Amino acid sequence: MTQNNRYAVLCLDSDFANLDKLDTELSLYQSHFDIHLATSISEGHELVQQIGRQGQHLAMVVARHSRLFDGGEFLVQLEQSAHAQSARKILISKTDAHDIQAILNAVNEGRLDHCLTYPIEQASLHKTVVKELTQYVVHHEKDQLLDFGKVLDQQKILRAHIENKMHSYRASFIHDFHELSDNELAIQVIEALLAFSQKRMRRARSDNIQPSTF
């Protein structure tokens, strides 16, 4: 299994045609996430273990559920894997009584994040993928968070980046303020805010991200 990125996405479906279509759609995100495919539950569990062994982080799992392919139970079982618990979980199913029960089980026992139903609209799929992956990286990526704005929700990522920086600055000031006079502290605050603002503008221009107003 080749690893190109820090984060991985796992897709499970016993239908090769459906899995191939899903792989094609998710190729838009492969610059930042490795896409792994499984056609059986056992293969899915093996891939989860391989991802963990090679130090990669499982960001999202997309599993199909049907009478012959229990993707809902697979998502529930992920809660038993320490390095897969935080992955965003999407279940694809129909809307009959059997699938509704599987959805409820996944929600109650496996922390299901989103459910899509067949037939899946392309726009709906990408909206869901962007939302869930953005949610994941905002909580787990610190050093290169802004880089994910190229393929995910730019504005949400930018806001999270700003909040992280401001939290870092506040923590630094709280740690050092008792050693500074009021004037020295004020100067440090102003200089830090100016430096942060300039860095934000440079990064926004280089990534073609329009800065938000807060």
Question: Can you describe what's shown?
Answer:
By secondary structure, this protein is of the alpha/beta class. The protein folds into two domains: about 5-150, Rossmann fold (3-Layer(aba) Sandwich), CATH 3.40.50.2300; about 160-205, no CATH class. Helix content is about 50%, strand content about 15%. It has helices at about 15-25, 40-55, 70-75, 95-110, 120-140, 155-175, 180-205, and strands at about 5-10, 35-40, 55-65, 70, 90-95, 115. Strands 1, 2, 3, 4, 5 and 6 form a six-stranded mixed β-sheet that branches. Helix 3 runs parallel beside helix 4. The longest helix is centred in the last third of the chain and has 25 residues, at about 180-205. The N and C termini lie far apart (about 45 Å). About 30% of the residues are buried. The model has no long low-confidence stretch (mean pLDDT about 85).
SSE order in H/E notation? Answer: EHEHEEHEHEHHH
Kindly name the structural category.
alpha/beta
Give the CATH class of the largest domain.
Answer: Alpha Beta
Shape: elongated
Q: Low-confidence runs (pLDDT<50, min 5 residues)?
A: none
Characterize the main sheet.
6 strands, mixed
Question: CATH superfamily name of the largest domain?
Answer: Response regulator
The total tally of domains equals 2
CATH topology of the largest domain: Rossmann fold
Give the overall pLDDT as a whole number.
84
Gross CATH architecture of the largest domain: 3-Layer(aba) Sandwich
Our estimate of the beta-strand percent is 15-25%
Helix content: 40-55%
The radius of gyration over CA amounts to 21 Å
- Continuous helix count: 7
Care to count the β-strands? 6
> What is the straight-line distance between the termini?
43 Å
